[in-house]
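seq:
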Amino acid sequence: MKDKEKEKAPFVKKNYYTISDAGWGYFCAIVAPYAVMAVVVILMGLLSSQIGQDMNQMTESLAFIIISCLFAPIGYCILFFALNKKTATSFKAVGLRFNIKLWDFVMCFVVAIICLFGLQYFIGGFNGLLQKGGYELTEISLPLDNVGYLILAIILMAVLPAIFEEFIFRGIILNGLKTKFGENYAILISALMFAFAHGSIEQFLYQFALGIIIAWMVVRTGSLLSGILIHFLNNAIVLILNYISQNGGSFELTYNAWQWVLSIGLVLVACVLIYLIERFYFKHKNRDLNINEDEMMSENEKKTVQSKPYPLVLWFGMGVAVVLFLINTLSGFGVLNLTA
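struct:
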């Protein structure tokens, strides 16, 4: 009789991510885009042999450039749903709540503008130093010479990354890290993982800062929606500025001693503004919606999750990300030739 009752018992998914989920999520997030790229390249190789077209010409075509922009979003999309299915986790665990308050919504725009314009001048100078040191900066691969291409670029490089990167890094990874490290350390660690995942020294500082800001806003507003919005605004504004620059506008920056002082000053202003928002806007807010684990985990589940050791896959994933970051950095400086 008891066996029959067990068979009839409904299957219940868990409504939270663990540190193990975060580890597997990060490791697979590093590997997934390369896996998708490998599949596409193999298929293109087979196609090129069938139609008799040179493989190099195919990879330099606009069609391949567009497809390559989909490597990471497709990989992250497959990863998100596969990991949720494998770990029997409900979609609720990601924290995508749409009941975000109006002023929180407005604050997302404010924070995105502060972050972008407060840090970009300094990052531009830093990248200029890298370039002087022999580093080859990457450029936006899609053409931006008309509005149609701009819209396509916004969809491929702003909309899709904002959704699927946030599902992985602030959905699975941040929430998983919070169960073991708490909010503050989880914000810092997830931001570091986010920066290394981009595999580029020229993006590292900005992605680290952006990762902190987005994770902080997700925690404070209690919704992944704020992270998606800030991420989208950041990428979209950068694309629009590049479009203006390529079509007659001028954003050429030169750096002397005073301009370095200005760029550092803008960073400090951005930090002060973020502090003021934290101190006077978020301090007295009701944060009931922000605590995902406490809302969804029982006391026994918390103790079980917190007592588990750090999963090996977490450290392995971080190690792989660091190695790829170093390889890309050395390649950018011309020490390694990955195209040979």
